[in-house]
Design a protein that fits this description.
68 residues; 2 helices
């Protein structure tokens, strides 16, 4: 079992809580801005890349019950 210091644990909990919120707010803003400024192709590519990175970040920071 890996022991995590309490300061790091609270930072990790903040990251876990912020990941879905930041992703759901920033994703549509970034994609729509890219579509307006650069083009539809850039927006679609950004949507795919940001979506993949967001899912990876969500999986890496997920807290599973009983696995503390």
């Amino acid at each position: 079992m890996v022991l995590i210091p309490s300061k790091s644990r609270s930072s990790l909990r903040a990251l876990v809580a912020a990941t879905p919120v930041l992703g759901s707010v920033l994703f549509p803003l970034l994609v729509s801005l890219l579509m307006v400024r650069v083009g539809i192709t850039a927006g679609v590519l950004a949507a795919v890349l940001i979506g993949c990175l967001w899912v990876v970040a969500m999986l890496r920071t997920a807290e599973m019950p009983g696995h503390s």
